[in-house]
Every structure is written in structure tokens, then in C-alpha cells.
Design a protein that fits this description.
The protein is of the alpha/beta class and 320 residues long. It folds into two domains: 199 residues, D-Maltodextrin-Binding Protein, domain 2 (3-Layer(aba) Sandwich); 88 residues, 3-Layer(aba) Sandwich (D-Maltodextrin-Binding Protein, domain 2). The protein contains 16 helices and ten strands. Helix 2 crosses helix 11 and helix 11 packs across helix 16. It starts with a helix and ends with a helix. It is found in: Periplasm. This is ABC transporter substrate-binding protein. Its main location: periplasm. Keywords: Signal.
């Protein structure tokens, strides 16, 4: 009896001894569904981790929090690591697990278009995203890929704050707008606009959003980073193995003001074009395409060596 009691006590202690990981996400988005699945389905706890999730609006602020040790891990676009590492920091920022692998925006037209072609944007008023931001750079890349010069073939508006772009379009500005979900689908439901194309489907695979940390943290907390990445892999498997409705139910607590049916619609849309990465590995082709996109936009400080700023060892172990 005593031995059983000791065993139970030890088991209880073991369950309580979770390693805390402070994670800063650049925004709250259904685009990041696997992260919330990992939290709600207990995958982090299974790996002995307790995640303290904080939403830090803006890539600059998120990276500042990471550099100042306010957080341990940042979930943000890989381009931010390029900008920081270009300043030759003593403690480089390393991308170690990928969450999304395409652009997450959609092209929304004011009127419904049955047979859309990108040529229709020529001569139009296009309400884009912030200059130098990844959505805008990926958007310009897609336009050029389809034979459109974003600065000469249309009237490009990109001086509106990210938070106000949707409102500006709803108020009558622009013929087309580049929007994230769930706003794009919500506009369709309300008749404000109509989704006619996906920038994500056109962009190709990019390390659009990744988990990154200081090199020193990954060296000191290698076991924690591996456990963290394994939990993300479990969540990625869950997202693709279950129905969009079940995924929506799992992440619904993070989107209290969004209808469950709308969450499911967005999950299915992102899943159909494989915006959610199926594993945490950021491969070299994706890294190089990212730099091509940034370079075309005139924002790349210099090419960054994949082997120096990407570490796939944790993802490879998690997959095995």
C-alpha cells in the first residue's frame, strides 16, 4: 500500500513539473491553427511543457521581446530573422520549426467574377498591405509572376495601416483588396466582397511563419526545443487527420467572437491549399524562395546562409 502511495505521489509530482516556454505570436490568427491545437489538445503537456502564449502585435515588437529575453520563442515571419541577423547580432536568431508554408492572404474583388484572370487587375485600384511587410512582398511577387507590374500596371494603395485595410475597402476604397482570413470569408458572407484568387496558392511554398529563438536558447534548452517541436508535429498531424469542424472546435476558445462555422470555413480553405505546414521542417528551397521574394521587393539586406540561420535537427527528431 505504501509503495503504491509513493508511486502515485511521484507520478503527481512528475505531472506538475512542466517546463515553461514563453511564446510570443505576432498576431492571433486562424492561420496559426496548429499552435492552438497543440495547446487545447494537450500536446505540449504530453511533452512536459507549459506554454505561456502572448500576442505581441507587430513583427518588430515580437523580435524586440525575443532579443530582450521577454519571450523564449517567437512565432513570426522568417523575414524578421533575416532583418535581425543582417545586423550581425552576437546571438543569432535561428528558425527551428515551421508552422505555415504559403502566403495567407486572398484577393477579394468588390464584384463577383465568374472567370477571373489576373489581367483584370490592370488599370484597377488595388488596396494592398504595408510596404516591406511579408503580405505585400508576397503579393507583389504573385502579381509579377502573373505578368503584372504592381507599381505601373495598377494604382497601388499601401499607406493604410494593416488594421484599417478591411475597413477602407468596406467603405468604398479600391476595386480589389488583399485580405487575411477570416475577414475575406466574412466579407463574402456579408456581400461586401468576393474571393476571386488566393495569393497562397500562387506564391509557392514559403517559410511564411516559423518558430524561432536565440541560438543560445536552443543550445541550452535543446531538449525543450525538441519537445516543443514534437508537440507542433502532433498538432500538424491533427489538423490534417480531422475534419475542419473538429479543428474549429479545438481552436474556438481562441476566437470567441467568431462563429464556429466561419472558423471551419477558414480552416478548410487554408488546409485545401496546404497553407498549414504538414511537418515542422523548413527546407532550403523555401528559404531561398523567401529571399527571392524579399529581393524582388527591394527589401533584402543581403542573402542569408540557410545552414547558418535554419536548424532542422529538432524537426527531424520530432518526425522520428
Amino acid at each position: 500500500m505504501l509503495s503504491c502511495l509513493v508511486f502515485l505521489l511521484l507520478g503527481a509530482c512528475k505531472q506538475e513539473e512542466l517546463t515553461e516556454v514563453r511564446v510570443g505570436e505576432v498576431t492571433r490568427s486562424i492561420f496559426y491553427a496548429p499552435l492552438y491545437v497543440a495547446m487545447e489538445e494537450g500536446f505540449f503537456e504530453e511533452e512536459g511543457l507549459k506554454v505561456d502564449l502572448r500576442t505581441i502585435a507587430g513583427g518588430d515588437k515580437t523580435m524586440t521581446a525575443l532579443l530582450s529575453d521577454g519571450i523564449d520563442v517567437a512565432l513570426v515571419g522568417s523575414e524578421t530573422s533575416i532583418y535581425v541577423n543582417a545586423q550581425e547580432a552576437n546571438d543569432p536568431i535561428i528558425n527551428f520549426a515551421q508552422l505555415t508554408q504559403t502566403d495567407g492572404t486572398f484577393l477579394v474583388a468588390r464584384e463577383a467574377i465568374d472567370d477571373f484572370s489576373w489581367e483584370m487587375l490592370k488599370g484597377s485600384v488595388f488596396l494592398g498591405q504595408r510596404k516591406g511587410g511579408m503580405p505585400q512582398m508576397a503579393g507583389e511577387y504573385v502579381l509579377r509572376k502573373n505578368g503584372i507590374d504592381p507599381h505601373n500596371d495598377l494604382e497601388l494603395i499601401q499607406n493604410i495601416d494593416f488594421a484599417n485595410v478591411a475597413t477602407a475597402f468596406a467603405s468604398g476604397t479600391g476595386d480589389f483588396v488583399q485580405l487575411f482570413e477570416p475577414t475575406a470569408s466574412l466579407f463574402e458572407l456579408e456581400g461586401v466582397g468576393h474571393i476571386v484568387a488566393s495569393f497562397g496558392a500562387q506564391s509557392g511554398h514559403l517559410p511564411y511563419t516559423t518558430f524561432m529563438s536565440k541560438k543560445s536558447y536552443l543550445e541550452k534548452q535543446a531538449a525543450t526545443a525538441e519537445s516543443f517541436t514534437r508537440a507542433i508535429q502532433k498538432a500538424q498531424n491533427f489538423v490534417y487527420a480531422n475534419s475542419a469542424e473538429d479543428v474549429a472546435k479545438s481552436i474556438a476558445p481562441y476566437f470567441e467572437n467568431t462563429e464556429l462555422s466561419l472558423i471551419a470555413t477558414v480552416v478548410e480553405r487554408y488546409r485545401a491549399q496546404e497553407s498549414y505546414a504538414k511537418n515542422p521542417i523548413l527546407d532550403e528551397a523555401e528559404w531561398e524562395l523567401l529571399q527571392d521574394v524579399i529581393e524582388q521587393a527591394g527589401e533584402l539586406p543581403r542573402r542569408m546562409d540557410y545552414n547558418e540561420f535554419v536548424d532542422t535537427s529538432f524537426a527531424e527528431k520530432a518526425m522520428n
